[in-house]
Amino acid sequence: MAVIGPDVTLHPTTYVHDSAHLYGKISIGEYASIWVNVVARSEHKEIVIGAYTNIQDFVMLHIGDQTPTIIGQHCSITHHCTIHGCTIGDNCLIGINATIMDRCVIGDNCIIGGHTFLKEGTIIPPNSIVMGTPGKVVRTQNNYVRNRLNAYMYYRNALAYAEGNYREWDHAEFPAKALAEIARLNTELEALDTSC
């Protein structure tokens, strides 16, 4: 069974895999998912994980000496990432084995490439693609749809895993559902663009 400390607050819809370990002041939003062998520790400050965000296999979340760890909504923190005392905006994808250090701030709709290292205090503007060690912005584009789609895939996967279904993405109807979600997200993005 998952180890969930007494100071952890889970929304009733949160999926937490049996192998996860969560300690200290941690808040996890609705339909977020915590996957295989995730470890999150918050001995002071706090860790906040937004709605529909997925924390994938072997991710380590910790707080900084002076900073909490705040992760927005509809984010994907992918396998083997280290997230340490930083703030990540909404609709972000943090690539496999990336490290985000204390006092980093990542704007909305960003992609941080796999194996990227963001040194302490790095500020990444919204709609950035970042790569390298240390990480630098290599392109600017709005990643809203692709990042929200990835979060949607994990939202659906978590619902399935909670029911003992480990092949959700293999169902015959799943591609049509993903295409419908892409269309919905594109419409949503257009509405957001025109409202600005």
Describe, in plain words, how this protein is organized in 3D:
The protein starts with a strand and ends with a helix. The chain is α/β, with parallel strands linked by helices and 196 residues long. Helix 1 (144-162) packs across helix 2 (174-195). The protein is built from two helices and 20 strands. The strands form two sheets. Strands 1, 2, 4, 6, 8, 9, 11, 12, 14, 15, 17 and 18 form a twelve-stranded parallel sheet that branches. Strands 3-5-7-10-13-16-19-20 form an eight-stranded mixed sheet.
Defining key terms:
UDP N-Acetylglucosamine Acyltransferase, domain 1; alpha/beta; 196 residues; twelve-stranded parallel beta sheet; eight-stranded mixed beta sheet; 2 domains; 21% helix
Structural class: alpha/beta
Strand content: 25-35%
Number of helices: 2
Query: Which CATH architecture of the largest domain?
Result: 3 Solenoid
- The percent range for helix content is 10-25%
> Could you give me the name of the CATH homologous superfamily of the largest domain?
Hexapeptide repeat proteins
String of helices and strands: EEEEEEEEEEEEEEEEEEEEHH
User: Low-confidence segments, ≥5 residues, pLDDT <50?
Assistant: none
Biggest sheet character: 12 strands, parallel
**Radius of gyration in whole Å, from Cα?**
16 Å
Report the top-level CATH class of the largest domain.
Mainly Beta
Number of domains: 2
CATH topology assignment of the largest domain: UDP N-Acetylglucosamine Acyltransferase, domain 1
